[in-house]
Design brief:
Distance between the termini of chain A: 36 Å
Shape of chain A: globular
Largest interface: A-B, 19 and 20 residues
Order of helices and strands of chain B: HHHHEEEEHHHHH
Number of helices of chain A: 4
Shape of chain B: globular
Structural class of chain A: mainly alpha
Number of strands of chain A: 3
Number of strands of chain B: 4
Radius of gyration of chain A: 15 Å
Strand content of chain B: 5-15%
Largest sheet of chain B: 2 strands, antiparallel
Largest sheet of chain A: 3 strands, parallel
Mean pLDDT of chain B: 92
Oligomer: heterodimer
Structural class of chain B: mainly alpha
Low-confidence stretches of chain A: none
Radius of gyration of chain B: 17 Å
Distance between the termini of chain B: 44 Å
Order of helices and strands of chain A: EHHEHHE
Strand order of the largest sheet of chain A: 1-2-3
Low-confidence stretches of chain B: none
Strand order of the largest sheet of chain B: 1-2
């Protein structure tokens, strides 16, 4: 019998898409601090592809993604930008 | 106002009324609030929308003049109810049906930075186009990335707009009697992918 899946075990990587940070950051929602707390309490780091980082950073300044403090999250250590995979020109197939 | 089918006067007056609703978010918000409640008094409007009483009177009066609200003066306290709107525009083959869901999205814009920025930068037409993608997105028939890509906006901003409109769609689906008439991008793409 295999063990039940535990998402908080060390071998699990949490990969986050752009939409997660926007959903948590919207004025109507304002769960960004809760997301940070969740990561820190469970001692986990959200891994984001470079593309997600670029999308958040390239958003208009007056929009929710443009106001996402992704750099402070990276500085604080609960978000990290993934290295590009070796030998692959584009990490993402077009959907 | 005659209710006869094919009444050109009613059609053109209705077009102008909708155009005015889509000029002023405060009127749009009041209209969909009344639509949701079915029957309200000025006190209800003041309490729920947190606007001054004089504004509530004046805006409700404007909407009655536009014939999108009716006022029942039969009792001591007057009550207001909303006339559900559906307006199809066809410009040289490009078609769109405006229903209370678009009016609600517009009415939310002053209190939603993403919708506000979208309208300011790209106009109301873009809001209407985005809504056609927000419907399949909200209903789980189109992924966030696919819907966002189709909007032809900066990607993360497109996601923020879709998330804002998803809330509108989920709130209005059961309130808007003409919801099914809104174009769904899954059935009729409006923007080339």
């Amino acid at each position: 019998m295999s063990e039940p899946f535990n998402p908080l075990q060390n071998s699990v990587t949490w990969i986050a898409d752009t939409g997660l940070f926007i959903a948590c950051g919207r004025q109507q929602n304002n769960k960004y601090t809760a997301l940070e707390r969740f990561a820190q309490r469970n001692d986990l780091t959200f891994v984001i592809p470079q593309r997600v980082y670029d999308e958040l950073g390239g958003a208009p300044r007056r929009s929710t993604p443009g106001q996402t403090p992704i750099n402070s999250a990276i500085d604080a250590g609960w978000v990290t930008v993934a290295d590009e995979p070796d030998g692959v020109t584009s990490a993402y197939p077009r959907l | 106002m005659s209710k006869a089918a094919g009444d050109p006067e009613r059609a053109v007056n209705g077009l102008l009324s909708v155009a005015q609703l889509l000029e002023e978010p405060r009127l749009a918000r009041l209209y969909t609030f009344v639509l949701r409640q079915e029957e309200v008094t000025i006190d209800d409007i003041v309490d729920e929308l947190e606007i001054p009483r004089t504004t509530a009177y004046s805006d409700a009066g404007s909407l009655v003049e536009l014939k999108v609200l009716t006022r029942d003066e039969g009792q001591k306290t007057h009550t207001y109810s909303a006339v559900p709107i559906t307006l199809s525009a066809n410009l040289g083959g490009d078609e769109y049906t405006i229903t209370p869901t678009l009016i609600e999205a517009f009415g939310r814009s002053p209190r939603d930075q993403d919708l506000n920025l979208l309208i300011e930068r790209d106009g109301l037409g873009k809001l209407a186009a985005a809504l056609t993608y927000a419907i399949p997105y909200a209903n789980g028939n189109m992924s966030e990335r696919v819907a966002a890509r189709e909007l032809d906006l900066q990607h993360a901003f497109a996601i923020a707009v879709l998330q804002a409109l998803r809330d509108v769609v989920l709130d209005m689906e059961s309130v808007d009697p003409y919801f099914d008439e809104i174009r769904d991008a899954n059935e009729n793409p409006t923007i080339e992918g």
